[in-house]
Specification:
68 residues, mainly alpha, 3 helices, elongated
């Protein structure tokens, strides 16, 4: 789930990069404009994936080993 959320978040970030640099919304262009139902669903999915990725900030990077 973490990798899927991360991939979706990266795709969303690329879309925002295109909007910032060129004023071009790739998701909107592909799915009928920013306000189309499908585009809005995709935006919600990207947003939820971004929220999911917050847990990656707090996840231990190095596994802990119990000394017995």
């Amino acid at each position: 789930m973490n990798n899927t959320a991360l991939i979706i978040t990266i795709i969303g970030a690329i879309n925002w990069l295109l909007i910032g640099l060129f004023g071009f919304d790739l998701v909107g262009a592909m799915f009928g404009g920013q306000m189309s139902a499908l585009s809005r669903v995709i935006f919600v999915i990207v947003g939820l994936a971004g929220l999911w990725c917050i847990n990656l900030l707090f996840k231990d990077k190095v596994p802990r080993h119990n000394a017995a």
